[in-house]
Specification:
Membrane topology: Multi-pass membrane protein
Number of strands: 0
CATH architecture of the largest domain: Orthogonal Bundle
Family: Belongs to the binding-protein-dependent transport system permease family.
Largest sheet: none
CATH superfamily of the largest domain: MetI-like
Helix content: over 70%
Subcellular location: Cell inner membrane; Cell membrane
CATH topology of the largest domain: MetI-like fold
Main location: membrane
Protein name: Iron(III) transport system permease protein
């Protein structure tokens, strides 16, 4: 069924109602008067879910603002703007802002150029070696960011193979790449986001109408001109929206700024917040004021993101029966498309993974050499597989990530159903569930610390606190999976169940959930993978016995245990990559069946 028929379906309700008095389906605006006498039946679940969402997402924002307005040098003075005055008067703030914007913008450009190019080659052309792009994406989704940072630190460090080769060629002493500078940080951060850009751009390019590209080629346009004047302009709103999203995520990045920027003396907003919270004693007011400024900055960017998304209809090229998703024939340039895929495969996956594997097999960090092959050992793997510390961290990660993903999917499945079917007051659910997207991970961690310190439940330093933070953090991601899934389910199926006497809970359980399950499972896996890699929240909230794998890797890396970090990372990446492969398969299957219901 075409998308247009899905959206037009169900705008009016059937006049017959089941005997139990419960409406057959959630009303549209035109049909609202038919059930007004029994509105409480529909309002109660929405109100309860709205209350739950408000309890989860509102307190962190309130606590953040309240703490930023507290003068900890004079707590009895009431609300004060002293933290903001001190922050604005500090010239280092503007250095951090400038560095953050430059870092995020350059990393975004790198991610988009490489990721979108690979996506177009894979989805729109007949280039060879396409499976390599999906292998790269799957493994990258399952790899903790700290592993990539450690790999590129080894490769591009002052004593790394790249700079060593450069010095041997030039005979000089200056390194080719300074990994602890903004250009080095941009390279690492940009490559981190290439797989996700490929995944999201791939869905856009896959749905482009090939007739327009073929018409351009028949008119004499070259392959390059066709891409520049037809393919990319059609994807302009999707690419612009994705650029804003990636820019926001780069702006709130934690791993690269802390692990590379801090040793190199490069100040960024996220590293400033982290250092303010981890100093002794922690500067709560300063870090909270910093965090509020980040929230305001991100909120402005999200406004632009919303405007871009709303204008996407003007660029639609899929118009029903005439749509045929055919690959673009590159002709004699097929080898160039294959070369792009291989370049991405080597740069994003093989080179860093080779470095991680090398470090995991050598007794200590040493450059690539034939002599190093003789000293290879599996002792780091034995430690990672048998040490109770690592096993405990792995169990913590699986447990808390699984619980958080389950809670998010359960809440957002209901919220999406209420919102798409226009239950009374359900528009507020979408807004509440999407609100945490303005909170960067490090900012949410600061807010949750304030909440934990004021509650008598022993939350501070517990797995429960991390789990609650994960639920809040990934609520918007759950909605992005659940809402399109509900939109693909024709309202007539729910109306038929209602006419047969099914109650609303029965309709949701026996009709909606089975049809929605592919999207929900893919969303669960995606959130699980993100939570299992999350460092910025966990590193602030974790206690001695509530650390996750990402925090354990962070601690061991800063303590100089790079071999154990590499071995643990390889094992963890293999496990997570299997889940990422399942998620990718379910997502592609769900996208292929879009509009079939």
């Amino acid at each position: 069924m075409a998308k247009g028929s899905i959206m037009n379906a169900g705008q009016a309700l059937p006049t017959n109602m089941p005997k139990n008095g419960v409406p057959a389906a959630s009303p549209s605006r035109r049909g609202a008067t038919s059930w007004r006498g029994r509105g409480w039946v529909l309002k109660a679940p929405v109100a309860l879910l709205g209350l739950l969402l408000a309890i989860l997402v509102v307190p962190p924002l309130i606590m953040l603002v309240q703490t930023s307005l507290t003068d900890y040098a004079n707590p009895d003075a009431g609300l004060s703007f002293i933290n903001y005055r001190q922050l604005i008067a500090d010239p280092l703030l503007y250095i951090s802002i400038a560095n953050s914007v430059i870092f995020a913008a350059c990393a975004t450009v790198l991610s988009l150029v490489l990721g979108a190019t690979v996506a177009w080659v894979v989805e729109r052309t007949n280039a060879p070696f396409k499976p390599l792009a999906y292998v790269t994406t799957v493994v990258s989704l399952g790899t903790p960011a700290i592993l990539y940072v450690s790999a590129w630190t080894f490769l591009l460090g002052k004593a790394g193979p790249v700079n060593a080769l450069w010095r041997s060629i030039t005979g000089g002493f200056q390194p080719l790449v300074n990994i602890y500078s903004i250009p080095g940080m941009v390279l690492v951060e940009g490559l981190l986001w290439v797989p996700l850009v490929f995944l999201l751009c791939g869905a856009t390019f896959k749905r482009q109408n090939a007739d327009l590209e073929e018409a351009a080629r028949m008119a004499g346009a070259s392959v390059f001109d066709t891409v520049r004047r037809v393919s990319m302009p059609l994807a302009k709103p999707a690419l612009l929206g994705l650029a804003i999203f990636i820019f926001i995520r780069n702006l709130e990045a934690f791993d690269v700024p802390v692990l590379l920027g801090t040793p190199g003396g490069v100040k960024l907003l996220t590293s400033d917040v982290y250092l303010a919270m981890t100093q002794v004693p922690p500067d709560l007011g300063h870090s909270s004021a910093f965090a509020v400024l980040m929230v305001l900055f991100v909120s402005i960017l999200l406004v632009f993101y919303g405007r871009v998304s709303r204008s996407a209809d003007r660029y639609a090229s899929v118009t029903g029966k005439g749509f045929r998703p055919r690959p673009f024939n590159l002709g004699r340039y097929r080898w160039l498309g294959g070369l792009v895929i291989w370049f991405n495969f080597l740069l994003v996956l093989i080179i860093p993974m080779t470095a991680i594997l090398w470090n995991s097999l050598t007794p200590f960090i040493r450059p690539f050499s034939m002599a190093g092959l003789k000293t290879m050992t599996l002792k780091h793997y034995l430690v990672a597989l048998t040490d109770s510390y690592y096993l405990h961290m792995a169990w913590n990660t699986v447990l808390i990530s699984g619980i958080a993903a389950t809670a998010v999917i359960a809440i957002t499945a209901l919220a999406a159903w209420f919102s798409v079917r226009r239950w009374p007051g359900a528009s507020l659910l979408d807004q509440l569930a999407s609100l945490p997207i303005v909170l960067p991970g490090i900012v949410l961690g600061v807010a949750m610390i304030q909440i934990a310190l004021r509650t008598p439940f022993g939350l501070y330093g517990s797995l429960s606190l991390i789990g609650i933070a994960f639920v809040v953090r990934y609520m918007p991601y759950g909605m992005r999976y659940a809402q399109p899934g509900v939109m693909q389910i024709h309202r007539e199926l729910e109306e038929a169940a209602g006419i047969s006497g099914a109650t609303q809970p029965a309709i949701f359980r026996r009709v909606v959930l089975p049809l929605l399950s592919p999207a929900l499972i893919a969303g669960w896996l995606f959130i699980f993978l993100l939570a299992a890699k999350e460092l910025s929240i966990a590193v602030l909230l974790a206690g001695a016995n509530s650390k996750t794998i990402a925090v354990a890797m962070f601690d061991q890396w800063t303590n100089g245990q790079a071999g154990e970090v590499a071995a643990l990372g390889i094992i963890w990446t293999v496990i997570m990559s299997c889940l990422a492969a399942l998620m990718t398969r379910l997502t592609r299957k769900d996208n292929n069946s879009e509009g079939a219901l």
